[in-house]
Amino acid sequence: MDRLEAMHLFVRVAELGSFSAVAQQLGVARSVVTRQIAALESHLGIKLMVRSTRRLAMTSAGTAYLEKCRVILNLVESAETDVAQERLAPRGNIRISLPLTFGIKRLAPLLIEFSGLYPEVSLDMDYSDRRVKLIEEGIDLSIRITRRLDPGDVARKIGSGQMYVVASPDYLARHGRPQHPSELIHHECLGYTAGGSMQHWQFLIAGQPESFPVRSRINANNGEVLTEAAAQGLGLTLQPDFIVDAFLQAGRIESILDAFPVPELGIYAMLPSNRHVPHRVRVLMDFLSQRLG
Questions:
Q1: Which residue from 26, 56, 90, 173 could staple onto 280, CB 3.0 to 4.6 Å apart?
Q2: 93-134: pLDDT as tens digits
Q3: pLDDT tens digits, residue range 13-51?
C-alpha cells in the first residue's frame, strides 16, 4: 500500500461522499479506491467510515484522521512544489471556471496568451454563470465577480469593475433622464437575476451605500441581453463596464446618474479550501492579476 496515495484517496472519498464519484473523477475502477481505503483501515486498525447502500458516514476516528491527512498532504505538496518551482516552468492541468460574458470578453484572450507563455500547462475552461462547487467538481480555480464574499471563501482579489446605469437616447427622450436614484421607481428597469431577484439598486450617496427600489417588467440572468433591450429603448439597466463599453462606444446607449456611483465589483480568484495551491495555479493568478490590475 502506498500510504500517501491511500490518504489522498481517503480525503477525496470523504469530500465527495462516494467511492464511485472518486473513481470516476480519477479515471480508475471503483474497486481500486475501495481496496486502498480498506488497506488503510487495516493498517490503522480502525474503521474510518461506515458504508451502506444509501450513504457513507465518517466515524469519529475517521473525522479526526481526515483533518490530519489534509495537513500532511498539503505539507507534502508544498514541499515538493517549493523545491521544484525554482527550477521548473509551471506544468500540469488547471481546471478553471469562468463567468460567461466576462470570461469570453476579457479572460479568454488572456488565457490564450497565458497558454502561449506556458506551453507545459494545459487549461480546461468551463464558461458558465452558475456557482460551481470547487471541491466536489475538482475545480482548481474559479473567477467570480461580486461585491461581497461569503464566510469561509478562500479568495484573492485580482481586479475590479465599474457598474453603470444606462439607457438608449430614444428612451431618455420619451421618458426623461432621472436626476437622482430615487426617481428610478418611476422608470422601466431591466433586472439582472443571476444572483436572485433585483428589487433594489445600490448607489453611493455622499460616499455611503444606499439602496433604491426599482420595478422591472423584463428580467434575465444575462447582462448582454438586458443591455440589448436597453439599447432598443425598453428601459434602464444596471450593468458592468465589460458589457456596456461596446454599446456606449457605438452610441446605442448613454450612461446616466453618473453623479451617484455604484459600488465597484470585485474580481476574485476563488480557490478550494482544502488544499495547497499548486505552483501552476499561483502563476496563473499572478498573470491575471497583472493583466486585470
A1: 90
A2: 999 999 999 999 999 999 999 999 999 999 999 998 888 888
A3: 998 888 888 988 888 898 999 899 999 999 999 999 987
Residues forming CATH 3.40.190.10 domain(s) in the chain: 92-161+266-292, 163-263
Q: What is the largest CA-CA distance in the chain?
A: 79
Query: 92-161+266-292 falls under which CATH superfamily?
Result: Periplasmic binding protein-like II (3.40.190.10)
The angle at the Cα of 198, spanning 195 to 203, to the nearest 5 degrees, equals: 105
SS3 268: strand
The pTM (predicted TM-score) of the whole model is: 0.67
Protein fold of 3-85:
Arc Repressor Mutant, subunit A (1.10.10)
The hierarchical CATH code for the domain 163-263 is 3.40.190.10
Q: Which residues, including other chains, have CB under 8 Å from residue 286's CB and lie 6 or more apart?
A: none
User: Bridge-partner residues for 144, per DSSP?
Assistant: 268
- Distances in Å between the alpha carbon of 21 and those of 25, 28, 169, 215? 6, 10, 54, 44
Are 27 and 138 contacting, i.e. CB atoms less than 8 angstroms apart?
no
Query: How far apart are the C-alpha atoms of 277 and 77, rounded to whole Å?
Result: 9
The amino acid that residue 56 corresponds to is L
Buried b / exposed e along 148-167 (16+ C-beta atoms within 10 A): eeeeeeeeeebbebebbbbb
Nearest to 253 by CA among 271, 266, 268, 239: 239
Question: Is the separation of the CB atoms in 217 and 188 below 8 Å?
Answer: yes
Are the C-beta atoms of residues 18 and 49 closer than 8 Å to each other? no
Residue (of 72, 74, 49) closest to 62 by Cα position: 49
Packing angle between helix 30-44 and helix 3-16, nearest 10 degrees? Answer: 110
